[in-house]
Amino acid sequence: MTSERLVLVGAMLADRSRVALLTALFDGRAYTVTELARHVGVATATASEHLARLRDAALVTVEPSGRHRYYRLAGPEVAEMLESLGADPAAAPPRPHPAGLDLARSCYDHLAGAVAVAVYEDCIRAGYLTQEEGSALRLTTIGRTFFDELGVTAAVARTDRPLARRCLDWTERRPHLGGLLGAGLLAWLLAHGWMVRGDRPRTIRLTRAGQRHLPSHFPGVFDGRP
């Protein structure tokens, strides 16, 4: 870290509210300015001003999704730096858990919810997808082989729509897989009977077959969940 960078970071950490905002983001998820302001106990305008300064200092990033803007730590190195300085991670702000929608649901034409986030993280870990600039994702050679063997990419129509992109999950506040590949994967899961649509709009339910077979392709799906 250069001396100029050290001075800038020190200035950012000299304010209790800014430190509180940073430690509220320790769980790696993204939150709106309103949620963070309420959690830290400052006015929304004050939180917005602090977050703008933290963003300029490259300590947080912001991602627009629909009508909201979500803030998260700029990377694990920021959390490690704060922890090394003795920062006490605050309890994360409360997140909505709508009944029947948090585990699995549709997001337009692709899968969302905790299962979808686990699938995305498995794809990144396995090297099937790599993160590009903005929300773009690149399907790697081994990723194309993996999805081709599943029979997913063969069913993806060629259009101007991006093949794969990150989509911020509403309940998990972490990315899931969107784009044509995400749509193709959900269609494949439904066609194989591993998932079925629920009675209410957007609800998706894992079947017994899905619970049995999905982890063999995406091992992280049920980590920490029954």
Task: Describe what you observe in this structure.
With 226 residues, the chain is of the alpha+beta class. The protein has two domains: 3-84, Arc Repressor Mutant, subunit A (Orthogonal Bundle); 105-217, no CATH class. The protein is built from nine helices and eleven strands. The chain has helices at residues 3-12, 16-24, 33-40, 44-56, 76-84, 114-126, 141-150, 179-191, 208-217, and strands spanning 31-32, 60-65, 68-73, 105-107, 110-112, 129-131, 137-139, 165-168, 175-178, 195-197, 204-206. The strands form five sheets. A three-stranded antiparallel β-sheet has the order 1-3-2. It has a two-stranded antiparallel sheet with strand order 4-5. It has a two-stranded antiparallel ribbon with strand order 6-7. Helix 2 packs across helix 3. The longest helix is centred in the N-terminal third of the chain and has 13 residues, at 44-56. The chain is elongated, with a radius of gyration of 19 Å. The protein starts with a helix and ends in a 9-residue tail after the last helix.
